[in-house]
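note to self: dont lose this again. the chain is below, predicted strucutre after it. 475 aa total, dont forget to put it in the shared folder this time
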Amino acid sequence: MNQTEVEVKETIYSNLNILSFSMYQIVWSIIVSALNLTYFFFYHTVVGLEPILIFLAMAIFMVWDSINEPLIGFLVDRNFKWTRKWGRRFPWVVVSIIPWCLSFYLIYTPPNIDPAINPWPVFGWLIMSFFIFDTCVTLLDVNVGTLRADKFRSDAQRKRYSKFFGPVDMIAVALGTMIPPLFLFLGNTRASYALMAAIIAFLTIIFAILFLPGVREDKNIIDRYYSKEYERMSFFKGMKEVVKQKSFMVFYASYTTFGIATTLMTAMGLYMVTFILNAGEDVFIMLMATFLIGAMISVVLWHKYLKKINNTKKVYTIGGFVLCAALIPLSFFVTLVDFLIFFFIAGLAMGCIWTLGVPVVLSDVQDDYVVRTGKNQKGMILGTWALIGRFTSFFDELLITIVFAITMFPAGISTLQGLIDSGANVALIQWGLRFLIGIIPMCILLLGVLVFWKAYPLDPEKVAENKAKLEEIGF
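---
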């Protein structure tokens, strides 16, 4: 069999197969959205752990993660005795996806010990549960992310996949942000959070099973694993190439700021509804639904704009600046009505980065890595990419901790009346929350958009050149 012929062959997948592969976004986004929405609020206001200790736990966790993520990417990026029969990515997905769903429940069942008396058992549980959670999700992200670029190799296939990715991801975020309040506002207790986590774990396991047919590699992909395209570099050489790659480092830095901004906005959702609007689950669900409706509408608009000008870098940059402008009013709303309007506009702006970032831009970056190195060892990039989630959590906790320390927000208080009764400066705390949902995320995101605009090297001509080189070298 001619090696080059095998390497350039590409399977055209059915819509059903692409939809099945897209189910991973439902699993991932439900869990991550629910986690970003609730875990800081849970440990701070319900469990009563001080923000500085939550931040310290994330700092310790991130140090471990900075080694763990690229290493796992390197270790799984190889053929094993089962690869020819089962594929390179599929077995790792099978053994890790169900434990990951179950580990979400673990995070919300800390020891029933008052942190005001002894914080260390809860602190240790937070670190331990995140270690388990992260090991599973790293195995998933590295293998699914690498397979995404291998499965959808052409620009047309990636844009076709992105049309599934955006709406499916938004539906998942809707589920991840709307399910928790149904349980939490019934009783803001440890038991209600544990029940919420159990329901989400069960729900995501169902979608995980639906995802498995789409993640199974076909013969064309498996054949490529045994071709020259997949000859391995050493771990340190691979990491050196990742760090040297301008397209990756620029996009990584830019997308990290997007992650920080959106995670910060999500984490502040419960705080805004509880401590400013003094409302319940109906208002929170209305708020998130308004945001996500705007985002889903925008997918069609941004795709049409991209098709019109055929310049991913330009569209992504414009979308970033529009989102920055849309975030500013979130800090200065007066009533629930204008807050809902501002959230809808933010959703319209969010759709661009949400839809194009991972399906299109990241895949172009991975192609750039292959062209530069002559090796299709994308696990190194995806292992490093997986650190984004941990960096965003680290910086989010840092910013929240600083603002809460400045405003003297006490731990262990979960209602506005409780905050008033505590004697805290309620107005100061509320302004801190307002800045954390609008102005601060805007400033962070603006930095990332400027970096991407000025430094990202993959314009349409360079993307086309990389595609030609991949074909030329048989990849």
